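Quick question, first post here. What does this chain look like in 3D?
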Amino acid sequence: MIEARQLVRRYGDFVAVADVSFRIEPGEVVGLLGHNGAGKTTIMKMLTGYLQPDSGSVLVDGVEVESDPLTVQAGLGYLPENLPLYPELTIVDYLRYVADLRGVDARTTVPAAIEATELGDKALQPINTLSRGYRQRVGVAQAILHKPSIVILDEPTSGLDPTQTHEMRRLITAMSESATVILSTHIMQEVSAMCTRALILRGGRLVLDEKLEDLEQSRQVVVKTRADADLSGIVAAGDTLSGGSGVWTVTVAEDPAQACARLTKAMVALDLPVYQITPARRDLETLFREVNEEA
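> Answer (accepted):
Ran it through. Tokens below.
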């Protein structure tokens, strides 16, 4: 379990992260979402112990990162946005070097990491001959080499073409079967495709923390009926009615599923035909835009 408590980080007079708190449970796949400069990378560096917060703390399985970073880092894999690779080394030599740094047996861990990331056909090539997509795979390989229980990935699909992005998504999905994954990105589609929960940052502050299935729900119900039907009689106190010509939107105070049942009964009582009545859903991109427009 990862727990961030009131994290604050400044760069001079600039506040990059302001009073951010959250908990991530084992097995979750969490997207850290925000515009460039929202504080995503700074938070990830504090989670890994690379940066110390000006105030606040990070605990991983009850161990405070600042007090005992080596213990935490032993069970953590990290892919920074710009991974420092050694271009003259082959993939195998580089991963052997990482295994030595990690204190794990290269004879077993390196072949397993190469197989997991499908780097076998490039394993003996120098890193400077690889495409960006393959270099990203090498980055993932070094992050999972020691079989960590937590994997943190900063912009893992940045600069990849659609085919490479698809392969990276596959790798991350496979990774999530045995590890907690935190994925930083400014691309909403990546979060929708791979994550079960989203943390949205704006200006260094955490403005939303929700499971994807919950945050995509809105407090609106879409009602389709006869074009000349008058729905003013079905709304209750607290409801807002908009639309017309047979397609109406009712903004409700209660759970939308319960509102559907209430509105259906009201329409039947008024002898109004119900062609369709369903909770409205928002995609993540729409929600992200709404959150940032509140600034």
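The chain has two domains: 2-214, 219-281.
The domain at 2-214 is CATH 3.40.50.300 (Rossmann fold).
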